Amino acid sequence: MILKGKNITLKALDLDNKKLKTLQKWLEDEEVVRHAGFAKTMPQSIEHIKSYLKKLQDSNDVRLFGIFFKNGSYIGNIRLDIEWIWGVGTISLLIGAKSYWGRGHGTEAIKLISEFGFNTLRLHKIEAGILEGNNSSLKAFQKAGFDIEGRKGGNRFNMGKRVDTIQVGRISEQ
Fold first, then answer.
1. Entry pTM
2. 94 and 56 Cβ atoms separated by less than 8 Å
3. How does pLDDT run across 76-88, given as a tens digit for each residue?
4. Strand, helix or coil for residue 125
5. CA–CA separation, 67 vs 62, rounded Å?
6. If we measure between CA atoms, which residue out of 106, 161, 154, 158 comes closest to residue 128?
């Protein structure tokens, strides 16, 4: 499955060694993962990453895509976890390539996966939880048409303290 945008393409993530090593580097970079809901606590082995990605790819309830810039560079991942019975999808996003931060690629990826979720998977709602302080992600989701729906107080531990999660969502227009 390939979803094409103006500057990026979302493609099913293959598990070649080059991408696995790139992902490993991102997952071990505290600046990259600081707002992902976990902090770097230990080295990430290629075997562990490969096993985890394989589990996601084999699930009927998850759609996992690599994010590729128009020049072919692998810059991140986006994932849609699906609750089929409710028609709800939850987005997780990681732009790992720091040189691509702040250039609108997260917003474009969110729009592409949302269109896929609404138009192809026929989901009713797509949502995400954003850790307090992750203003870039919040802005990206808002630019992609998501509304702030609420806040879960102190439900995550990040960077040595309890933080809120800002809940955002978007309802299908169909």
1. 0.92
2. no
3. 999 999 999 999 9
4. strand
5. 16
6. 106
